[in-house]
Amino acid sequence: MDGNQSEPPVDPLTGITPAAPRTAGGLWQPPGSFATGRGPRLFSGGGTRATVISSVSTVVMLGILLAIFLLAPGARAVEHAFFNPTDMWQSFIGNPRKGYYSVGAAIWLNIRMFLVAEVLILAMALLVALIRQSVHPALFPIRVITTMYVDFFRGVPLILVIFALGLGVPALSLPVISTQPDVVYGVAALVLSYSAYVSEVYRAGLNSVHQSQVAAARSLGLSQGTALRYVVLPQAIRNIIPPLLNDFISLQKDTALVGTLGVIEANKAADIYSETVFNFSSFTVAAILFLILTIPLARFTDRLIDRDRRRRLAGGIR
Amino acid sequence: MTGGLEVPIDSMQSGEPAEAIRIEDLHKSFGATEVLKGIGLTVAPHEVICLIGASGSGKSTLLRCINLLEPIDSGKIGLFGQEITGPNINQNLVRRQIGIVFQAFNLFPHMNVLKNVTLAPTKVLRIPAAQAAAEARALLDRFGLVDRQLDYPDRLSGGQQQRVAIVRALAMQPKIMLLDEVTSALDPELVAEVLEVISELAAGGMTMLIATHEMGFARDIASRVCFLADGLIIEDAPPAELFTAPRDERTRRFLRRIVDAKRL
């Protein structure tokens, strides 16, 4: 569909994507172009008209945005409040004696929360998806419960779930369950909320594998479980990796919401700094750190999507 | 790497039941549509039965019922004297003995040819991976596919894919093979290579039930040809008889249409 302009047909093996010629206009990047086409295209000595146009338009665009910021009446004040280098550095390294934490150290808690939650979400969401996809009559009540679970946690804002667990469970005064650190309730809320979303992604993936694949596997004598494990799931997961990673990019930054329980993660540390020193530059630091976390995953996702598309193009009709 | 397994064409012991398959009064509906309306059929070991009939006459459904891929509504299916449609039947055990090959190949696209063939032997029969691979290579070699063993299905032609699908079924050493219009999805020039494989199986004594539109092939290979129409086996006769002197008017009409379409 993309390649039928006047450009020559594109060889999928060269890494030049069919949509790539359009990106020279600087308007739209196909997924994965960072890894494959864009760099050499923009800066190598090709000197095509399109390259010049895209470079000029980028400079003009950035110039306009910078001018708007610098010429605004409150530019000095905003620059001082949000981009003060001293405050940015101070909040990054932290100083417990002055009453604030290091945002740079606190981001590690976000990373740890993300990693633990991710593993649990992958497992729990798969379980929920498999139950919802099951057909056995004996599983009917569990199917109803999982459906209600998904409806509920997709509908309730994550921050309310965090409050409900973080404040409600300790109030129950149960042994063990009610005496966990706040970060545990925060991660549990992330897992509950995101598993509901991710189970739907899994379900879409399971449905994307044609029933004839199951028939082929079962006809060879594979049990339902074996067919699921070796035939259906590998194909389903391959199909859902991009949307799955997309949800995890979202999860990475939503770990900041756990700070509302008083857990010192990056956003909370930035909050404490700003309240102590009356400068918001700490939030800028937190934002930069979150971007450093999420952008590589976003680029990785794009690369996977691109690779998948090229493989399908190379695969031909069958 | 050869010297592994041969297709167990003559492996059935003496004293085996006279019937490989026995079907009695088989009924099957999809919703309100009754597709099979009382099929009766017996297949002796080493027989090759070709099922012919118009699209939608129930050939595929019959094969899928025999392999327990479709639950039946009433009737009985027996396999070597044992009823397989009763309660408390281990479907996986039954299916191991019956290989089925589909019109659309249904290879596993995420596995290479060798993995496609060895999956069931290793996971179902628990044959060690090295042994399963050696046996698979021997089978692939026999059907001229051994040099494609590391290719993924989407790199193969339709004919090659269908031959791999046949090898995949054979790797489970089935006693019976069900072939469901295995050449219908192929380009005409690829049909011959697949039919050749089937002929070789027939020559080796494999019991087969073949749903097909290739009348010439059916005439050459079948011990009996069954004509299905309206959910019933209308006529069941050796090919020489059925193709030259069909008794039923519907069979005659069907064959006349085939001849008119230059397919016989």
Overall description:
The complex is a heterodimer of chains A (318) and B (264). By secondary structure, chain A is mainly alpha-helical. Chain A contains 14 helices and no strands. In chain B, 36% of the residues lie in helices and 23% in strands. Chain B has helices at residues 59-66, 91-97, 113-123, 129-142, 158-170, 188-203, 215-221, 239-244, 249-260, and strands at 21-30, 33-43, 48-52, 74-79, 82-83, 98-101, 176-180, 207-211, 224-229, 232-237. In chain B, the strands form two sheets. In chain B, strands 6-7-8-3-9-10 form a six-stranded mixed sheet, sandwiched between helices. In chain B, strands 2-1-4-5 form a four-stranded antiparallel sheet, with helices on one face. In chain B, helix 3 crosses helix 4 (129-142), helix 3 packs parallel to helix 5 (158-170) and helix 5 (158-170) packs parallel to helix 6. The termini of chain B are far apart. With 264 residues, chain B is an alpha/beta fold. The chains are: A mainly alpha (318), B alpha/beta (264). The A-B interface holds A 212-213, 215-223, 226, 230-231, 234-235, 238, 315-316, 318 and B 64, 67, 69, 91-93, 95-96, 98-100, 102, 104, 106-110, 119-120, 123-124, 153-154, 158, 161, 168-169, 172.
How would you characterize the largest beta sheet of chain A?
none
Q: In whole angstroms, how far apart are the ends of chain B? A: 42 Å
What's the helix count of chain A?
14
Q: Structural class of the helix and strand makeup of chain B?
A: alpha/beta
| Portion in beta strands of chain A | under 5%
Overall average pLDDT of chain B: 88
Total strands of chain A: 0
